[in-house]
Amino acid sequence: MLAVEVEHLSKNYPVAVKDPGLAGVLKHFFRRTYRDVKAVRDISFTIASGEIVGFLGPNGAGKTTALKMLSGLIYPTSGRVHVAGFVPYRRERKFLRKMSLVMGQKQQLLWDLPAIDSLRINAAVYELTDAEFRQRVGEFTELLNLEGKLSQPVRKLSLGERMKAELLAALLHHPQVLFLDEPTLGLDVNAQEAVRGFLRAYNQRYRATILLTSHYMADVTALCPRAILIAKGNIFFDGSLDGLQAQFAPYREVKVELVQPLPEEKLSAFGELQSVDGREVRFCVLREDLTAMTARLLGQLDLLDLTVTDPPIEATIGRLFRQSNQSSAESAADTVR
Ligand SMILES: Nc1ncnc2c1ncn2[C@@H]1O[C@H](COP(=O)(O)OP(=O)(O)OP(=O)(O)O)[C@@H](O)[C@H]1O
């Protein structure tokens, strides 16, 4: 069953354009001109129930705009979107009970009140019984390691504790679909790991669907078998992280440790040399040449060790984003009307 269906979805933000100087101010006052910022351009994808998908892109790519359309905060300019069988911007009560949007930079907990008081408000909004409220708060407090923290005013919590309490508040009504915008933003490594562990547990326990944006690749590699990559409003990859490596990083690194150092001329006959450091030598090898190359190395050289590794996924994605920025800089993005 599909939890999210997006078809040819676009969002343009009209932005007023003002010329410099007094003439510009007067013109702006009497006759405004606008240009469209094309934040999301004709994107399509589906997410099955229970999937966790990473939504990745450089700053300004359109991730938050897309999440806002999926959660019904803003209207699309064109295209269709269904989440849990509902059209998000209609904001039906049944839909709001089925989903949650958590934004790393925004908070719903009241700053001066203990988190438990804000949770009680949420429980009333979602019409939870006392028993449900106690059971869910107890379960999530344990999973998030928040014992003793919910009775303190939110302003006295650490950033990591506050984010965990925000997640607790967002999930109290057991949403089936969860949109997370930078849920680990600014957290230290331990708190990031705790949030990831919690999201994994929630996904497994309740078969919840999660779409998350993050600039931390560790979030994605730890949680998301699948990633959607977006830049300048366009999706340019949608598939498994392994597929991404295969499609965009067709090379692997072969590292060998020689019994005796050998001259570079002799080594380069085996393939593209990346580095030679005494007896440690690294080659960059096309995936399709890997078997033949390792067989030749093992057959013709005296080796102590041989390892084959993928380039790190961070490096692949970082390179893709840089490429997409360069290509988009060459094409004019906005229109004036
Ligand atoms: N309310 C708005 N009015 C005008 N332009 C906007 C508005 N909100 C976003 N934009 C523009 O739309 C584009 C996409 O922004 P969006 O916030 O969706 O990107 P993002 O991928 O979430 O970026 P980041 O990773 O920096 O949060 C950007 O060029 C941004 O400046």
TrEMBL record:
SUPFAM superfamilies: P-loop containing nucleoside triphosphate hydrolases. Residues 4-257 form the ABC transporter domain. Keywords: ATP-binding, Nucleotide-binding, Transport. The keyword ATP-binding applies. The keyword ATP-binding applies. GO terms for molecular function: ATP binding; ATP hydrolysis activity. It comes from the Bacteria. InterPro entries: AAA+_ATPase, ABC_transporter-like_ATP-bd, ABC_transporter-like_CS, ABC_transporter_ATP-binding, P-loop_NTPase. It holds the Pfam family ABC_tran. This is ABC-type uncharacterized transport system, ATPase component. It comes from Rubidibacter lacunae KORDI 51-2.
